[in-house]
Amino acid sequence: MAKLQSLDPHTPMFAQFKEKTGPIVLANTFVVPKERTEAFLALFRRQAEFMKAQPGFVSLQMHKGTADSQLLMNVAVWESTEALATAFGSPEFQRMVAESPDDIVSYPHIFEQIDV
């Protein structure tokens, strides 16, 4: 299974699930070894199809780092942290997450929009 790391050690993603807010953006950066990129993206597409069918899902985009980077970044919009937490915790999604190789590292974090 992919290794889950906190982007902000003071606020891990599971602590963020407790915050009742929305809409929210999940930004999840993955470090994926070059030789695993295609297999990872195939698995991610399956996970994305599942998430797109869940209540509260709004949108999703995947981005690839430039200049031969090993980074991929998923940006997903959800109506609320509660909707994301419910989808993330579902047994079906957790089975798919368990399929990720151990040498992939994931840095998820939940954000909400602010006015600037």
UniProtKB/TrEMBL annotation:
Signal peptide span: none
Record domain ABM: where: 24-114
Keyword annotations from UniProtKB, A to Z: Monooxygenase, Oxidoreductase
SUPFAM superfamilies: Dimeric alpha+beta barrel (SSF54909)
UniProt superkingdom: Bacteria
Coiled coil: none
UniProt protein name: Monooxygenase
